[in-house]
Amino acid sequence: MYRNQLVANVNRVLYKLHPAYANPDILADTAALQKYFDSFPSCLAASSKANYIKALNIFLGYCSQTSEVREKYTKLIESMGYIRECLGSIRTALSKSTSRRMAERKASQFRGDCKTIPITDILNCVDVLKDKYIKYLDRKRIHHMQLKSLNTYFNAVITLKNAQRPSVFSNMQLHEFQSPVRIETSTGAVRLSVGVVDHKTASTQLATVSFTETEYEEVRKYIKSAPVLPRLTVQPLCL
């Protein structure tokens, strides 16, 4: 969260709690704080409320570590634990509410309330194009537009099959692709698993991309056939 946005969010909360007395000490009134978030405009996204909670927590952390603030706003410091507890309960309720809405949305899709396309149908559509695009790999010289078509094809197939974000392929390095782990499944099928270190949730887990031997060989031929990989949806591997 940028500093200006952080300050603006904290100021909005203080103003709403007491327009004539925008003093950090008023955060000690946890009942008023709870009431403010309960009356949060329903037209705003849940992420907006989460951003306000995050801003207040960052602000409280700053206040607890700054000696000048600790001396000036004693009421705030004395009630710090209660304020954090209040914000924590609000955040928990928000998470549950968000999860419930997502579950209801998924349920409505299964009931047919929303028109959705099953992932299997999407993969079937992509597979129809396989013969058209894969044959480009057998050519001695591949036109740059054909490289882009192969790029899009591999990105679609492998992203959908692995249920990964496109950014995983954006950040996949060539040395990672060239060092796959060979895995034999219970059915005897062989999969080649590639680990990607640099991606959105890298701090919590290593992203993995699984290839069949055929898919891996097709991508390898694609890389070998492209002296300069086209900059399209991903870099540097361009899958």
Please explain how this structure is put together:
- The protein has 239 residues and is mainly alpha-helical.
- It folds into two domains: 3-110, no CATH class; 119-225, no CATH class.
- The chain has helices spanning 3-17, 30-38, 46-65, 67-72, 74-78, 80-110, 119-128, 130-134, 144-162, 166-170, 174-177, 213-225, and strands spanning 181-184, 190-196, 207-212.
- The protein has a three-stranded antiparallel beta sheet with strand order 1-2-3.
- Strand 1 (181-184) and strand 2 form a beta hairpin.
- Mean pLDDT is 76; it is low at 230-239.
| Overall pLDDT | 76
Q: Which regions have little confidence, pLDDT < 50, spanning 5+ residues?
A: 230-239
The helix/strand series, from N terminus to C terminus, equals HHHHHHHHHHHEEEH
Please state roughly what percent of the residues sit in beta strands, choosing from under 5%, 5-15%, 15-25%, 25-35%, 35-45% or over 45%. Answer: 5-15%
Q: What does the oligomeric state look like here?
A: single chain
Give the helix/strand class.
mainly alpha
Outline = elongated
Rg (C-alpha, Å): 26 Å
Number of strands: 3
Strand arrangement in the largest pleated sheet? 1-2-3
Tally of distinct domains: 2
How far apart, in Å, are the first and last alpha carbons?
A: 31 Å
Number of helices: 12
Largest sheet: 3 strands, antiparallel
Roughly how much helix do the residues carry, as a percent range?
55-70%
Quick description:
This protein is mainly alpha-helical and 239 residues long. 59% of the residues lie in helices and 7% in strands. Strand 1 and strand 2 form a beta hairpin.
